[in-house]
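Batch job 17 of 40 flagged for manual review because the log was empty.
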Amino acid sequence: MTRNTRILMSVFYWAFVIYLFVPLALMVVMGFKDSNFIGFPIKSWTMDWYTSVFADDEVMSVFGYSAIIGVTSMVISLAVGSWIAVLLTDRKFFGRVVILALTILPAVIPGIISAISFRIYARLLDIDPGMFAIIWAHAVHNVPFVALVVMARLSTLPKSYGEAARDLGADEMITFLRITLPYLKPALIGAGIFCLLLSFDDFVRSFFLGGYKPTLPVLIFAKLRSGMSPEINAIATIVLIMTAALGIWAERSMRKLNKGTRS
């Protein structure tokens, strides 16, 4: 690689970084503006918007509601996605390609089409709009991501581990619980955090399948209809910090677990 090529690539990289982070920085800054409207110049600064978010019972209730939906759908997605991944790694399994295609399908369907389909199917099954319907839709949408991540991790599992366990008298279930599952922990943590963030951020399916109580994205959308306010920036900044904290924790946990499996 020539020096000019490296310089050009560095310029493109830093241009992309600026393009990505400047809007986020502006969003955070606007949350401190002492005004009811977003815009420059910022004449004075305040923390009132952040304190009002934590003092707002509706916003805190919606935070908790969205967290319950996210965690529940994440647990369901991990269980179903891991089971499918283990099933698909068996080369002798008949219909492997068809099952894999059907598993990935929810991830590639456009969100609006998926939401309409879930809404129609919920009516057919007589499922009322609300928490259960949203959890169901989020779990189905997240399963493909879990299955792909777990399959990628399973493909690196040395066959000698399972063979050694079976030579020592372990059956298939014990081998999975004592060998395979610990080896999958980094993938499960990464896939779980990803599913949690997908569920927390999902608007379309939550909007179509929600009841009277909104999730956080739906609440923000409702507030946007009355105009942009620094309160929305404050809510978005809090979510951004939570997301970054979860991402850093997941990344460090995966590194530690990967070092443990290698040693």
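Reviewer: the log was empty due to a logging misconfiguration, but the result itself is present. The domain at 47-262 is CATH 1.10.3720.10 (MetI-like fold). Unflagging and moving on to job 18.
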